[in-house]
Amino acid sequence: MFRLIKTGRTILIPIFIGMVFYFMCVGALYSEERIVNLEANVDHSEIGLLDMLTLTVTVNTENVKSISKPTLPKLDAFSVVNESSSTRTSVSILNGKTTRSRELRIKYILKPLKKGTFVIDPIIIQYKGETYSTEPVTVKVVDGHVADEADVYMLDDGTPLDIEQLKTDIFILVEPAESEIYEGQQILLTYILYSRLDIDTIALKQAPEFSGFYKEDIYNATKLENRRDTYNGQEYNTTLLKKVALFPLRPGIYDLKPLVLDTTVILKSDDPYGFFGRPYSFQVRSNDVIIKANPLPEKEKDFTGVVGELSFNLTGRDRSLEVGEATACYLVLKSTGNIGAIRTPEIYLSKRGRAYLSDTKTDMVEEEDKLYLIKKFEYTIIPEENGTLFVDTNDILYFDTVSKRYIYVSPDPYRMSITGKSIAEEPIIKKQQRSTGRGSFSFIKGDIKRLMSRSQSFLKEPLYYLYHVLLLGWIGFFFILKSKRENLKRDAVAYKKVKARNTAMQILNEAKSRIEENEFSNAIDHIYTGITTYIAHKCGKTPQDITIKNIRTILAEIFSEEKFSAKGSDKEQIASIIERCIQYKFSSTGIDDEHIIRELYEQSISVIDSMERK
Fold it and tell me: Is the pTM of this model over 0.85?
């Protein structure tokens, strides 16, 4: 045993010395490390805004074990949507010298952001204190597509990309329940992403636009859900992207703009060895949606603007309470129509008491593929008379899309039992005279003769008269100043009344200019300002004092009811103009229909001229 071990050591020692010598020689052969070449090129010198640009950076080195990643310059006209890299290594021996060559290739997928001719600045690599850079690359970007993507994009196995197959593998589907509705009727749209591909990145490029509609957002996705679903016999991963309820503001045919996503997927070939795949970036658009909104039958006078279903109920917090004790009553509206068009309902008490609107809440709920909008009004009730108190409100007229007719709906009155002593009406306070008590008092009578003989001076000291003269002058000065200010104020009010139409017309002319420049939001602001300025100058108020709640009361102060009824309801027209301006101004989607804004502008001029004639 001892000899065997000794013999083994004798054999291993020469082998170990030979290996050390070999590695020393190899190390000497690999002593020269350098970057041979650095270059950058693109697959196309001219592309379209809807195309993708492939920028390839190639680094060739010799005997370099590792190297830092190239630094891209600032890309103002492009965005990097994907990046991939590959390495190829080879070893050669020439004249006893071993050279290890390595090629590093990095591909950047760039998306153009704007049109024009752009220069991609040199790409830089730092290695052992030296800087290596590529030549600049020039790319021209034009509208649309330039190259056929199926011809220029290849999969890992060299087969071309099948664009038609790609459209069936990933798409956005939106199918409205109905394509033909009434103006003001609700239509529910659901945008769903179907995919059978490996999605790398996805981002919203363009949200769908709903011009001419009042919109209620129900859901907007923040991440991919990847739920399994079947469509046309194929299995897909699905994600609910968006759900929205729309209400057309007027009749017409609407072609909705699509939802567009910037998407990058990993495409794999049928080659079993193509494990990683290649990224491909493109846009996914939802299908076209066309909606026809039919006009309603001839509208009745009390129509609220709600189209669809409507329920209306009146409830309360207490069924019995004491006189003077506060309670709450709730008026709840639930509808598939736009209940935002309904004004705040008024409630009526059958007995003496006070009622105040204390709160308003809104909510929405989905039931049976419909969105129900809920509006809850809270009123504070303070009864002042005992007995049975009924709380009631006016009926509401809406259009029922099932029966296709106008229907009145009214809640049952809410009943309460009021106990306790009624609060008496306050009596008139009469002025009472204060009586003085009769009494007697004594005094010591002085020497009258001596008092009468005392001399009295008729003239006072000069300072006494000077003080009173200055005091009277100061009072007079302020009296004259106050009169002047009141006269100026009356003159200013009178001037504004006379010039009210001219002032309003100047503002409305500015609204007309905004319409011609397609600045519809500013045009609505000027129409609203013109109408409120006219009414404010006629009644001696400021435009900020004019609101939709007090407009009828203010108009009644300016013109008598006989004048209003003589040539139609100008009061209702003005209230309608202000309501529509507020509706369009605070609509979540805005409005870009020139016909509607111009009609509102002409109606404003007409009603002002009509009031001036009265």
Answer: no
